[in-house]
Design brief:
By secondary structure, the chain is mainly alpha-helical. The protein has 4 helices and no strands. It is rod-shaped and about 105 Å long.
């Protein structure tokens, strides 16, 4: 009879130890908020990417997006004008 009690208590201690052991994955993830916590949105790498993200989130309208892209293109053209090579074929 004493042997059955010792085995049962040992099993209970092992089960409780495994249930409350601080596993690395469990320690950093809240169990009750797994479905409620959304990952942060990725950061945009460029100005165009930032504008696209704002458009998709509904922070700016499609007209505002088009105007902003036009201003970016005009600024890039002023800063880095595209030079066309000369035609040496004699045409």
């Amino acid at each position: 009879m004493v042997m059955i009690v010792i085995v049962a208590l040992t099993g209970l201690v092992v089960a409780l130890g495994l249930a409350f052991w601080p596993w690395p994955r469990r320690r950093h993830e809240p169990r009750h908020l797994d479905r409620l916590v959304a990952p942060p949105p990725p950061l945009a790498d460029s100005l165009e990417g930032m504008l696209t993200a704002q458009l998709l989130r509904g922070e700016i309208s499609s007209q505002q997006y088009v105007r902003a892209c036009e201003r970016i293109a005009a600024r890039d053209e002023r800063r880095h004008p595209m030079s066309v090579p000369r035609d040496d074929r004699g045409v």
